[in-house]
Amino acid sequence: MTLHLSRSELLSSSALSSPPPTMRALRDAIAQARDIPPEKLRAIVADLDRFLELSPASAAVRPHGACLRPLFGKLHPATTGLSPKRIANIIAHVRAALKWSYATWPRASRFPQMRPEWTRLKSLLLPRSKLAMWLSRLTHWANLNSIDPAEIDADVFARFAEHLDQTAAVKSPIKSARQIARHWNMAAEMVPGWPQTRLPLPSTRTTTRAAAKEDLSHSMAADLAAYLRSMQGENKSASQPKRRNYRAAEARLTSPKEEPYIYSITTIRQREQILRRAIGLAALERGCRVVDLSGLADLVAPGMPGAILERYEEELGMPDDPPASIRLMSLTLFVMARRYLNSSESTMLGLRNIIGVAGPERFGMTEKNRSKLKSLTRRQYELLFRLPSSLLSRAIANIKNGKGTVSDLVNAQTAVAIAILLHAPIRGANLASIRLGYELDLPAETGAEAWLRFSFDQVKNRIALEFPLPPDVAALIRAYVREVMPEFNRSGFTSAVFPGLKHETKGVSHLGGQIASRITEAVGIRLNQHLFRHLLAYIYLARNPGKYDVIKHLLGHKSVETTKKYYCGAEGETAIRDVSKEIAGMKIEFGLDPRNMSKLGK
Predict the structure, then answer these.
(1) Residue 452: other Cβ atoms inside 10 A
(2) Rounded Cα–Cα distance for residues 19 and 416 (Å)
(3) CA dihedral of residues 85, 90, 93, 97 (deg, nearest 10)
(4) Which of 462, 472, 377 is nearest to 422 (CA)?
């Protein structure tokens, strides 16, 4: 028979005189409680056990809502096999256990009794307002550390920001600190009686950032601009940058294996940012101003490239493994020295050695994405494939009933985007730019395929892409065009499949965020739009090992070697399972049961 204790007996017991440090300890403590009705106690303990089973990591987590909230978000019908109502009941009983803990041991709550000074100050704010919400963490921290409102200043806030960075369960401590400081300053301006101390906004920038264009010397700015023009295929000595200079191209010295390469606008902007950061680091190394550097040759002077990368690594916090950005900066310096400065062989050899120290080139999916794709269950695949039709049908039903909202329009857009990505894994920029009658050829007859076409100049690696969309996807898009697109409040007709509120087409990141959020809500795992490229390659290669040529055409790679670099090994699990099947066949021949080797076959 289980011995149940009252709250006073719990507090007087030496073994239970302190609040439980973990969720496992809280479960053991509340199981002995006598101040909870027996039926309710049994339900709470059973659901605590179920929560610890579904989320094993929670056993060692501190019993507080802020620490458990991320784990609550991972409980999803697709991953747990439970209904949404059952999951909600489990979370409700876990929170009931937390409230019981706070009442039994007030110190178990992160927020103890407020001091009169802070109680008076908080009464000046409207309950549940944005000011009250954002300032709550700061006020409770100051109350816990016996800091009065009048003592809040820049130094105290710096201590709070450090505490936020080290202990708080927030995704981005520095951004949260900025928001808290901003709302404190708003309260000082808007709320009568609030302390008038203004808090500085913590900077999200690193100590050494890219040198500003206006800080560059005239010669450095001209040198950098000329190099960037050369990346567009224009020689640095050309008097008219927009005109093709065939004579200069003929006279350009290249090695037999090197061909003049034209970079995309996105890559050129990225390399400009990297070089301006290298300029700032070089100025720090020399102990001079940015304006004192005369040209790009100063970045590859003897001893300077290594010093730039060492300072950059210090700026990144001295990680154990060199991050990809270190190698990218070393490659940027190497290509600039070879392509533009025509540096000596000794300089190029030194830069090549630095690239080797910066770590090997990394290909393929990250381990995070690989494990995410492997964790997808059959049920999650089913939910993903059903998601476009369910989103669109609900949106159309609401619109026809006169209950349509902006959310229905967004859901309809997301449905079409996911349906397209499941058959045409294009990049985000191409997805957002689709127009009826241009990139998308949508036939009017039922049962016909639709075609998605992109010319070479629309694609990142300048390879034309064509994708046939099956009849079910074409029917879904026709329903979207007929029922939903007229609802977009725009003047005149727009051919954009994904129109935005401010622009003709929706932004790439905006559309991508909508796709990821809807998939997370329906499937229980976050899949961004670019991950669909990995997903389709993973699905096909797992069922057709070694057929990289198909994936090459699907993803629009220039060479099958590129496909192998990224997806070689994706079919490894299938190969191992095939070997396991052969071993299972041999076990049967020897009279063993492959399902249970402890039993002999007949």
Answers:
(1) 21
(2) 51
(3) -160
(4) 472
Other C-beta atoms within 10 Å of 418: how many?
24
**CA-wise closest residue to 178 among 212, 208, 205, 197:** 205
Q: Which two tokens stand for residue 105?
A: 């041991």
Sign of CA dihedral 34, 39, 42, 46: negative
- The Cα 27–Cα 33 span in angstroms is 10
Query: Which tokens in the block code for residue 28?
Result: 């053991």
Q: Which residue has the tokens 């350009």?
A: 252
Read off the DSSP letter of residue 340: I
Which residues have a Cβ under 8 Å from the Cβ of 259 and sit 6 or more positions away? Answer: none
Tokens for 115, please give them.
Answer: 């001091």
- At 375-421, the pLDDT tens digits run 888 899 999 999 999 999 999 999 999 888 889 999 999 999 999 99
Secondary structure (DSSP) of 494-508: --BSS--SSSSS--H
Closest by CA position to 399, among listed 415, 387, 385: 415
**Model pLDDT for residues 418-461, shown as the tens digit of each residue:** 999 999 999 999 999 999 999 999 998 888 899 999 998 888 87
Q: What is the 3-state secondary structure (H, E, C) of 550-571?
A: HHHHHHCCCCHHHHHHHHCCCC
Angle, in degrees to the nearest 10, between helices 406-421 and 378-400:
140
Question: Which strands make up the sheet holding 465-469, listed edge to edge?
Answer: 440-441, 450-454, 465-469
Question: Model pTM?
Answer: 0.68
For residues 405 and 77, what is the distance between their CA atoms, to the nearest angstrom?
A: 26
What CA–CA distances, in Å, run from 350 to 252, 302, 307, 343, 578?
A: 24, 9, 13, 11, 48
HSE (side-chain half, CA atoms, 13 Å) at 221:
10
